Amino acid sequence: MKLFERMFELIRPPFEGHGPLRSLRPVYQASEAFFLGSTEKVAAAPFARDPLDSKRFMLMVLLALCPALFASVYYFGLRVIAMMAVSYVAGGTVEVVCAILRKKDVHEGFLVTGFLFPLVLPPTTPLWMVAVGVVFGVLVGKEVFGGTGRNLFNPVLVGRTFLAVAYPRAMAAGFLVPGDGWFGRLGQYQVDAISGATPLALARQGEYVSQWDLLVGSVSGSAGETSALALLLGGVFLCAVRVANYRNVVGILGSVFVFSAVLHSADPVQFGPPLWHLLAGGLLIGAFFMATDPVTSPMTNGGKWVYGILIGSLVVVIRNFSGYVEGVMFAILLGNLASPLIDELFIQLRVRRLQFER
Amino acid sequence: MLRPPVFRYTGREQWPRDAASVLADAKDDDDEMKLRGGYNIRLAGRPAALIEGVHEPARLFLPQRSRRIRFTRLLVKNGQRVRGGEVLAVAPEQFGVPLLAPRAGTVRLRAQRGHVTLEDVVADSLPVSPAPPRAGDGATYRQMLIDGGAWPFFYDAHSLELPDPQRPVSAAIVATMHLEPFAARGDVQLDTSLEAFFRGLKLLVELVEGNVFVAIPRVAHELAMKLQRGLREIQRIESVEIPLRYPLDHFDVLARALGLRPRRGASVWGLRTEGVLAIDQALTRRQPVTERVVSLGGSGVRAPVHLRVPLGYPLEGMLSGRLVPQPVRVIDGGILNGDEVGERPLGLSVESTGLTVLLEPVGRELLGFVRAGLDRLSYSNCYLSFFRTKYAEPLTTALRGEHRPCISCGFCAELCPAGIMPHLLHKLAYQNALEEIDRCGSLRCVGCGLCTYVCPSKLDLRREILAANATIVRDLHTAVGTGTEEVPA
Q: Cβ contacts of residue A341 below 8 Å, gap of 6+?
């Protein structure tokens, strides 16, 4: 520990004051903050603080995504790791450049964006597309709004939507048949493109993949979204450590289940069973990891329920009644768009109640 | 050297604080009382259930100003010899509350700035004031309380200011516990002086027009039951069980939960255990209150205890020999809303409830945010802290993170006992939208500090809100003059 402290002491001077590398100060600051705790002391009451900080907040999300990452590498090969590396480097560069221009610290929020982005892409997406997507997502989805904490949309979904709209054919062709056998595609990197239709696309043709396959994840789909089990594992953990708010998750999953059940009971042939819908596609990764982003979801508890139900019902509508087979991405973006409005409503209600109480 | 006396607390160790032993801490049980928010921060360093005495002081430093009181008019001359209980100074703006000499000694006015210093202090038997001509007369009683030095124990429940003795009192709230971490606990004194407590309560009832609400922790505990039984025998007393979550013992929070609204022309009193005991001291025993039981807690204290100390006792004397040999920070009051003790004051003020000593952080933590959390309990669970109930990590004054923009995690609003949304106020404060801040109820803030304690972005929410409130009261409300809320400087 002392060694690290001394090392950072040693390399600090050029970044400080009028040092030659002063413009790169955010980079230095970020790496120091990563390894060593802050030196800052509390100036006013309360004189002690909870150990929770934004670094740990973000780390919890990464930790919760690890099962999904493992599943994606297992089913789709080592290429996912390469995609993640590209995502981190490209997106991280944007983040750092913006921090330098803004003369502020690099914020931790990007750790999650960079990790999550490749997991929502088809597993054979060309690496340059990963880079383009993440750059667009971070820049347009977050930085132009003022950086972490001020963005309206989830940057991951902004990047994903950009790719889906700009390169529809490449994206659609990027889906891969999952590996099978004991080791899946654990040892493989480049796979001869065996394009596989996603379960939701197959469902349009009346062919339902078994729920067991959806649960373990041996189906085609975006890299990190296929294994419901891995996502549930991480997602429940995330709710238990209270980084994700359960209200969002329950709101979405509950409403998808209920509305799908209604549709299914009306016409079992055309509409899939509710549990199947819960496990299929990007619903779980979206519900647990994207809709729970505290920045882009409402901050009031009542608002979180409404937001969840709104997203859930949009998912059901888009999946069943539109040209798109998958609706989670658009549903969450629309939810993001609505969340300030939802918040306003609940804040006014609360303010009214407080005034009445006074 | 003589060892100072130790007053042992004979009951069971303390109010049980752990979740398991708290009977019904469930949310739905609070519904009838409308208590919201609060957090039972489990921290190491709470003062033991033990009241220790201190060595007789050679000198006393009586601060002329404390949070609410300014003793500006001096009644003694430099070099004058005074007896214990004699009036040294009065606070003309605070209803003539006197500063009493706790011991006999020689007055030095210019020895320390802002203090009345007593030298050559000798322990002296305190005078007994004459019995009041008419027993049970409210005005006489109040004057006796002021003259007897008991008034600093009284609070206006809504503003936390010193209550006006002339105003009628519609109700009073007595909090038998003090839930701020490391603060002096009521139960320690209660156990040894339950009789005096009940006597004080009976006298309090006579001073109050309406009911006296006594807040008792909702725990299965011998003392709590004894209290319950005793309270049932006194007229116009209502006991209120509250969960052990800071700051649900706050007078303003309790007053709101009990539906006691601020009213023009009548005030609601707030008192703690020591306040009721002070009433007994001043009215039954008719002796001036010149001592306080204060806490000495926190991670910087070797063995946290309670101390029975004469007012003006040098803080240095209270701390010497009790601190760990490391850099520490001394705080007057609790960690969540106390004030840092800098160069001043030198002695214990008439309002001080205790000292909290926190370690200053030494060194920097390597990869602290990935630590498993077995030894670090946090408001949001860390991966393993879930399995712990005790908080073993020594608390420091480190910020424990970097300042970041608000991510709207909502923890602050979850904890807020006033029901306001600190994160929203933070954003409004950023836009300088004072009227909007006011409309969102920022004046309800009780300054408990929980929002700031849990904030993962390390925002100074408490300070921001209190600063905004001060501006609101000054600029927006001066014409209206509601002035019913606490606005500490």
A: none
> Do the Cβ atoms of B395 and A42 come within 8 Å?
no
pLDDT tens across A216-238, in order? Answer: 988 999 999 999 999 999 999 99
Strand, coil or helix: what is A190?
coil
In this structure, the strands spanning B237-242 and B6-8 are unpaired
Is the model's pLDDT at B15 over the cut of 90? no
> Which A residues 156-185 touch B at CB under 8 Å?
none
Question: What tokens were used for A310?
Answer: 């709104």
How many CB atoms within 10 Å of residue A266?
9
**Using a CB-CB distance cutoff of 8 angstroms, which residues of chain B are in contact with residue A350?**
419, 421
- The Cα B408–Cα A104 span in angstroms is 20
Among A285, A262, A284, CA closest to A273: A262
Is B337 an interface residue toward A (CB < 8 Å)? yes
CB contact under 8 A, B462 and A46: yes
Instruction: Give the model's confidence band at B134: pLDDT under 50 very low, under 70 low, under 90 confident, else very high.
Output: low
Instruction: Quote the tokens at residue B75.
Output: 């009644």
Output phi, psi for B200, to 5 deg. -60, -40
Residues B467, B473: Cα–Cα separation, whole Å: 10
Given this model, what pLDDT does residue A232 score? 96
> Is the torsion defined by CA of B162, B166, B170, B176 positive or negative?
positive
Cα–Cα dist A120/A282, whole Å: 8
Contact between residue B455 and residue B481 where contact means Cβ atoms under 8 Å apart: no
Token reading at B113: 């700035």
Average the pLDDT over B377-386 and give the result.
74
Cβ atoms B323, B355 nearer than 8 A: no
Share of residues in chain B with pLDDT > 90 (%): 45
Say which DSSP state B473 is in. I
CA distance, residue B418 to nearest chain A CA (Å) = 9
The 8-class DSSP code of residue B476 comes to I
A47 with B358: Cβ contact below 8 A: yes
- CA A241, A307, A292: angle at the middle one, nearest 5? 25
pTM (whole model) above 0.80 = yes
Q: Which residue has the higher pLDDT, A259 or B178?
A: A259
What is the DSSP secondary-structure string of A239-285? HHTTSS-HHHHHHHHHHHHHHHHHHHHH-TTTS--HHHHHHSTTHHH
Which residue in the set A47, A54, A147 is minimally distant from B456, CB to CB?
Answer: A54
Cα gap B102→B122, rounded to integer Å: 10
Q: ipTM of this complex > 0.85?
A: yes
- Give the containing element (helix H, strand E) for B267: strand B267-272
User: Any idea what DSSP says for residue B266?
Assistant: B
User: In a 3-state reduction of DSSP, which class is residue B455?
Assistant: coil
